[in-house]
């Protein structure tokens, strides 16, 4: 594969729109199946829940720091994105545009928000 995100700060977890159209699943009967990785019955991304907690904690802290300001948050919430939300309105427009386009906050995967959702 090709590395699309060089750090956990900008790693975008796969979502339902990354799922292939034809997905075939075989369930394992028990945990001693030789085809199971390290004998497990299930694998996944359980740290996702911890990451969600951090995302909402940062969002709440930012809103408490700038009460009355409308803030917009998008995952992954990188340090650059958070600082731009907090202080971007104090930057000249050309500097803000330059900071937004510096490549550090780019999405590692194509934007899927415009795809037709079933």
Describe the 3D structure:
Residues 103-110 have low confidence and may be disordered. The chain has helices at residues 47-65, 79-87, 93-100. 31% of the residues lie in helices and 0% in strands. It is mainly alpha-helical. It has one domain (8-100).
Short description:
The protein has 118 residues and is mostly helical. It has helices at residues 47-65, 79-87, 93-100. It contains three helices and no strands.
Order of helices and strands: HHH
Sheet with the most strands, sense and barrel status: none
Strand content: under 5%
| Strand tally | 0
Oligomer: single chain
Distance between the termini: 29 Å
Which regions contain 5 or more consecutive residues with pLDDT less than 50?
A: 103-110
The number of helices is 3
Number of domains: 1
Structural class: mainly alpha
Rg measurement, Å: 19 Å
- Averaging pLDDT over every residue, what do you get? 73
How much helix is in the residues? 25-40%
Task: Break the fold down into its secondary structure elements and pairings.
Blueprint lengths: L46 H19 L13 H9 L5 H8 L18
Keywords summarizing the entry:
3 helices; mainly alpha
